Amino acid sequence: MSHSVNEPTLWVPGRELPSGAVHGKESLGRYLARLRELAGQPTWDAMARAAFPQAKVPGRRPRGVNSIRNWCAGRHAPADPDALARLVRYLAKRAGLADPQALAAQFRQALAALDRTPPAQPQLTPIRLGTRLPGLTGREDLIGQIAHRLAAAPLAPAIVALTGIAGVGKTSAAVEYAHRYRHGYQLVWQIPADGPGALWSGFAQLANILGVRDRAGRDSTDPVLQVHTALATRPGRWLVIIDGVPEAAAIRHVIPPVGDGHVIVTSQHPLWPDEQALPVPVLDAATAARYLTAATKDPDAGAARALAEELGGLPLALEQAAAYIRAAGESIGGYLALFRDQDARAALLAESGGTAYGKGVAAVWLVAFEHLARHEPSAVTLLRLLSCYAPDAIPYRDLLAEPAGPGAQSRALAGNPFELNNAIIALRRYSLLQQPADGLTSVHRLVQAVTLGQLTDGERAQWKAEAAELMERRNAACVSVI
Ligand SMILES: Nc1ncnc2c1ncn2[C@@H]1O[C@H](COP(=O)(O)OP(=O)(O)O)[C@@H](O)[C@H]1O
Ligand SMILES: [Mg+2]
């Protein structure tokens, strides 16, 4: 047991009081109880009368009996040092100790030295967070950038928006960051944002946990406001992840405006303020190949590298391929051979078993394709056309500068920059295109594969012919039709 200046020792010469230091009300209680024993166990009433003489009312039970029982049991430290001193003097006299006055002074000192602040309650850190991805590969740079951006942001709360196509690994990166850095936060809360209902209930749960919402569900106050109010003044840093946001405008009102906190948003929509946007890249070929060999236990590094390139380093597609390879007892090389066949490729991309997502790339992007087909048909036209070229640096503006012939499928776009821009904007909303610059853009090769996979052989042939014709017309020697 270590002694310090804050832990005075009580002793009674010639008597065996418990030795050691007074650590708190419990140990003070043990001393008092022992002293009472030495004094021949006087009644509680007698002790109370000794400690609180002024409260004596003839014929009534003395005041303070409960307090004294509590002191001796170590449940409470005496609030009144004079009463404690009187009690100690009384007991010491009855026990026949040499210097009751001195002992009372020691007890007084011990009481004064007790730390009266209540023992710190273990601070609960509310957490709602997806599980960490066991096979997460790479991403050291990205996680480091998230940490740096959040720590260095000039405004509070700090906001980072992870952007990129569905399946590129935005959520996984946000969750990994949160796990790694959770010790720096007193609250970590992940809110799904893929619909107004999800946002509302995510905020309502958080408001419940923060104690600002009626748990019975009768509270009709906007939970977003409740959470904002609570976070604004909450001590300790918090982290809120708003996951799967369609676009900045959709959640402007839900981002906590004030407080010592960090916000990570994930979104397919790339248009966020520059200070906030952090595009999530695909995995580089070496990292993707490492993932494939580890996830499939097939050590064929050459095939893994080739497949990683075919899949364009897209995490969801890599995971989907690894799941298929394991389930089918296939090798990476075998999968690669299948994948290079146009028909088998579409079927493989449509496979949905075995991913943490529960879906494969074709199914995940279907939502976007269907929405575009309904609301922005010319975006679908543009995507089909761009899917016929080699994926990088397609000079789309040049290709579509002139009006097309009457039978052309791209006639809505050709020679119509306004419509072309609308199509670009619509595709960008889902990160289905790279940010265009100088009339060039790139399409992820799997987006191309899935787009072409949705067509019949005849349609595909027609699109390819049209793509070739546009290319010839513009004499765009740098592009090749795939
Ligand atoms: N770095 C990575 N290594 C291995 N698998 C990954 C990695 N990032 C993502 N995944 C897997 O890819 C899939 C898509 O990732 P997710 O983070 O959900 O993408 P997003 O949020 O961008 O749509 C998930 O099923 C996940 O398990
Ligand atoms: Mg996600």
Short synopsis of the structure:
By secondary structure, the protein is an alpha/beta fold. It is built from 21 helices and 6 strands. The N terminus is likely disordered.
Q: What is the level 1 CATH name of the largest domain? A: Alpha Beta
Radius of gyration: 36 Å
- What's the CATH topology label of the largest domain? Rossmann fold
What is the CA–CA distance across the termini?
79 Å
Structural commentary:
This protein is an alpha/beta fold. It has 4 domains: 25-113, no CATH class; 127-279, 3-Layer(aba) Sandwich (Rossmann fold), CATH 3.40.50; 285-350, no CATH class; 361-474. The chain is built from 21 helices and 6 strands. The chain has a 6-stranded parallel β-sheet, sandwiched between helices. Strand 4, helix 10 and strand 5 (261-267) form a beta-alpha-beta unit. The longest helix has 18 residues, at 457-474.
Note the main attributes of this structure.
482 residues; alpha/beta; Rossmann fold; 4 domains; 6-stranded parallel β-sheet; elongated; binds adenosine-5'-diphosphate; binds magnesium ion
